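Tutorial, part two.
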Amino acid sequence: MKRVVLLLLAAALAASATAAARPAAKVKTRTPGVLTIAFGDSAVGFASYQLRGNNVINPRGYEADIARAVAAKLGLKTKWIYTPWTGLFAPGTKKFDVSFQEATITAQRQKTVTFSSPYLDSNQGVLLSKKAKAPKSIADLKKLKTCVQTGTTGLDWINTHLHPTTKPQIYQSTAAAFTAVQIAKCDALVLDVPIVLLQKKAKPSAYGNVAAQVVTNEKYGAVFQKGDPLASTFNKTLAQLKANGTIKKLQKKWFQIDTASIPVLK
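Running the prediction step on this input gives:
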């Protein structure tokens, strides 16, 4: 009898271990067993990569590591692709399961896509050209020639709060906007604080200072096709990564910057 009991117990434990190790078969993705992750423009500290056709090769950064950690917990392989920022919030079918593009969660965008819970906070930052004088107030910034990426909360803030003397220069990509401020085509690039700080850190001689920030209290979320139930599964996994300290460790790994030291414009 003891032998039978022991055999039954061993079988139960083996079944339990097998179930725990089994990949999340009920997670529905575009390709079974694979999480297709999209990035926009290569971004220092968030997702830097090589691009071959539409395929992203060896992405490195905070967002890439979050995606890897989520996929691992869900028992999914990863596939990395590129998708442009300009179409990220367009309604309709997406070519990805989830996209990371330092995208701020807004009510307007939530009309066409579903966001994950937040994974990073941000304000808007002001990156200067090497020829520009640092603004001491919003009134000073208003007089500068600004540049910005299309479809961003930076552009929204310029249009609704700054109302600059000169119409802002609008670019389709972050790379183009960074080039504009680097060659002094504009005086100041208005873009998220962590993005401009990390870019300045990567190319310190290319720009002037990150001279200021404006408090906008933004939160980044990963993007899903509108109504995709995968977002709920993702959020539960993200909550686990926050609870076990993984997210904090990744922030420390990739963001050795001090946003609190940047002056706030008023």
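Residues 1-24 have pLDDT under 50 and may be disordered. In part three we will examine how such features are distributed along the chain.
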